Hints:
Elements: H1 2-8, H2 13-29, H3 31-40, H4 46-59, H5 64-88, H6 95-117, H7 123-143, H8 162-179, H9 191-194, H10 196-215, H11 217-235, H12 239-250, H13 253-263, H14 268-283, H15 285-288, H16 295-312
Helix pairs in contact: 1-6, 2-5, 2-14, 3-5, 3-14, 4-5, 4-7, 5-6, 5-14, 6-10, 8-13, 8-14, 8-16, 10-11, 10-12, 11-12, 11-16, 13-14
Amino acid sequence: xxxxxxxxxxxxxxxxxxxxxxxxxxxxxxxxxxxxxxxxxxxxxxxxxxxxxxxxxxxxxxxxxxxxxxxxxxxxxxxxxxxxxxxxxxxxxxxxxxxxxxxxxxxxxxxxxxxxxxxxxxxxxxxxxxxxxxxxxxxxxxxxxxxxxxxxxxxxxxxxxxxxxxxxxxxxxxxxxxxxxxxxxxxxxxxxxxxxxxxxxxxxxxxxxxxxxxxxxxxxxxxxxxxxxxxxxxxxxxxxxxxxxxxxxxxxxxxxxxxxxxxxxxxxxxxxxxxxxxxxxxxxxxxxxxxxxxxxxxxxxxxxxxxxxxxxxxxxxxxxxxxxxxx
Length: 327
């Protein structure tokens, strides 16, 4: 919706920028509130609320302001519902949360291509959302009455104040959100090359949780960010080095999310919402500050992000017995 509005040329650049900013604020800034309410009132069918809002937003595309609000709210509800589900049924592992968020990177890239081309009819995404809504209703009905509780993650240092864990994990996320916007990518001249950053982010997020579960949170988070700093700083001019670097850059996503969840074991929705709010905080400055692309600044920020995680994460993961669910 946003990129079709942009490509049509019917609105000024300032109005289009405001539309992107408004969508981000609604879709990501409201998730802590929606997450907290979903934790407090477990019977609210947040996932079922989200998809009809998305469908309505697509139908209101000729009215951009209404469409932005509806799609933003729909995305926020669906995101929180999926995040809660991933954390509640993770059995203390990080893999599930990484898999859940990974496909969003591809969705953003494909959505921007569809919007710029103007060739994708609106009934196509609506038609794709309808069977998803039916399946979600079936899953929700089967889970009604179950008393599953959030999993306790044991990846942050136990002696740290939980505010310290939340703050430094959020700072790490915000830094990565901003750092990703200052990498030169002049080689993105074709549709395939345009997708490279999204493919790299998808691979990193999808694999990061599995790697952290197997190797250890601090090792994988710090190593992946340092590798990203090296690969992107010295190889940004090569699409393939960049793709690998961005994959490493996104590996720690599930680690930071689960670090926040470890500080809020009874509030998975709020924990997920805090992580998306941190993403928003790192993204907002790009709307007001024209930053000169700089691989060296990217490297410096990535190292600071790694240092935050090194400080809050355990060197070796602690287990929770058989991984049973606890409240």
